[in-house]
Specification:
homodimer; 9 helices; 71% helix; elongated; DNA-binding
Chain lengths: 212, 212
DNA sequence: GCGTTTACTGAGTGACAAGTCACTTACTTA
DNA sequence: TAAGTAAGTGACTTGTCACTCAGTAAACGC
C-alpha cells in the first residue's frame, strides 16, 4: 500500500493555492470571465469547493489573486527576453513593439483584459484589481526602462510608455473576427511603424499639441 | 374611462422592440455584460419576460440586436457634428481625435466594447456580433472619409483609420482607476498629439517599417 | 360582427450559481 | 502519543438564470 508523502501544512496550503490559481487562469482563458465559476475552478484544481472557500473568502478574491499572480509571471517572462534584443536603437525599438504585441496576443493577457472590463460594473472586483494595478504599473515602467534605457530619463517617460501600451492594447482587442487578414496585417504594420517612430524619436514632441 | 389608442400590430411590435433594445443598452451600461439578464431587461422595458422571448429567440439575439441598433445611432450622432469642425487641416485633425475620444468615453460604447470582449469565449454572441461588424466598419470608414476628406483617397486609408481608432480604444479603457489624474491627462495629451500628427502627415510613411 | 392571427401575460421549469456547514483527515505541539 | 489545530470533503441552502407554455387581449381580414 502506497503511503502518501508527508507534507507540512505550509506545503499543503501552497500547493492547493497554486492549483487553484492555475485553474482560475486556465478557466478564465478557456471559458471567459462569465464562464469562471467556483465549481469549475475547484473541479479543474482537483479539490472540493469547500477547500476553495477556505483559501479565498469570495470568488472576487480568487480572481484578484489570480491576476495578482499572473502579472508578475508574465513580466518575468518578458524580462527574460531582454538580453536577446538588438542594441541598435531603431531595431531595438521595433523589437520592443513586437515583444509588447506578442505579450498582448497571449490568451492569459486577453483574459486579464476581459476581467478588467468586467470590473467596470463590479465594485468588489474593481476594488480587488485596484490593489493589483499600482505595483503592476510600476513593474511595467521598470521593465520599460530596461528595454529602452536611453529614454528612461525623459521627463514624460511614464506617459510615453502608457501611450505605447494603450495603443497596442487597443489594437490587440480590435477586430474579433478579422474579416480581412491582409488588412489586419497592414494595420499591424502601420501601428508598428508609428509606435517605433515614437520610441526612437526624442520624447520632446510629446509635450507639444496639448488639447485645445 | 380612457380608452387606449388603437395601434396596428406593426406599431405594437415596433414600440415593444424599441423599448427592449433601449432597456438592454441601459442595463448594459449600468450593470455590465454580466448584469444583463432577460428578467432585468423585461422589467426595465415594462413588458413581461414572455414578450421579450417573442421578439428575440435568445438572449444572444437580443444583445446582438442592441449593438446592431446602437452603432448606427452613435455614428449618426458623430456625423451631426461634422459641420462644426474647423476646416484648417491641423485644427481639424485635432478636433477629429477629440471627437473620437469623446465617443469612446460614452458609456454606451464602453458597454459595447465590454460585450465584444465577452464574445471572445461566447460563440453565439461572437457570431451575432460578427454580422454587425462588417457594415459597422464600413460606416466608420465612410464617416472618416467625411472627417478627413484630404486623406480619403490614400491607398492605406482604411489601415490608417484602424490604427487611430484602435489607439483611442486602447487608451479609453486603459486604466480603470486612474491613480494619477495628471498622468492620465498627460498621456491623453501625448496620444492626441501623436495621432494628430498621424492624420496631418501624408500617409506614405505608414507603408515603411514593416515588421522584420 | 366573427373567426383567425398576432402580441402579450405571468406562473412555471430545470439547471446551475455562490457560499455554508457538519464532519473527516492530515499535520503539529507538548 | 494524545490533545489541539489546520486543511479538506461533499452534501446542502438559497437564489437567480434562460427559457417555456397555457391562457388572454388586441388587431386583422372578411
Amino acid at each position: 500500500m502506497v503511503l502518501p508523502p508527508r507534507r507540512t501544512q505550509a506545503e499543503r496550503t501552497a500547493t492547493t493555492r497554486r492549483r487553484l490559481l492555475d485553474a482560475t487562469v486556465a478557466a478564465l482563458v478557456e471559458l471567459g470571465a462569465s464562464g469562471v465559476t467556483t465549481t469549475e475552478v475547484a473541479r479543474r484544481a482537483g479539490v472540493s469547493q469547500g477547500a476553495l472557500f477556505r483559501h479565498f473568502p469570495t470568488k472576487g478574491a480568487l480572481l484578484a489573486a489570480a491576476v495578482e499572480d499572473l502579472f508578475p509571471r508574465m513580466l518575468e517572462g518578458a524580462r527574460a527576453r531582454v538580453p536577446t534584443l538588438p542594441v541598435d536603437a531603431e531595431a531595438r525599438a521595433g523589437a520592443v513593439i513586437d515583444l509588447l504585441w506578442e505579450e498582448y496576443e497571449r490568451p492569459e493577457l486577453q483574459a486579464a483584459v476581459e476581467l478588467y472590463m468586467a470590473a467596470r460594473t463590479d465594485r468588489d472586483l474593481a476594488a480587488a484589481l485596484g490593489r493589483v494595478e499600482h505595483p503592476h504599473r510600476q513593474r511595467v515602467h521598470a521593465l520599460a526602462a530596461e528595454l529602452v534605457p536611453e529614454l528612461a530619463g525623459a521627463t514624460n517617460f511614464a506617459g510615453l510608455v502608457d501611450v505605447v501600451v494603450d495603443a497596442v492594447q487597443g489594437a490587440s482587442m480590435g477586430r474579433l473576427h478579422v474579416l480581412d487578414p491582409d488588412a489586419a496585417a497592414a494595420g499591424r504594420a502601420a501601428m508598428r511603424a508609428t509606435l517605433t517612430q515614437l520610441l526612437i524619436a526624442t520624447p520632446v514632441p510629446l509635450t507639444l499639441g496639448a488639447p485645445s
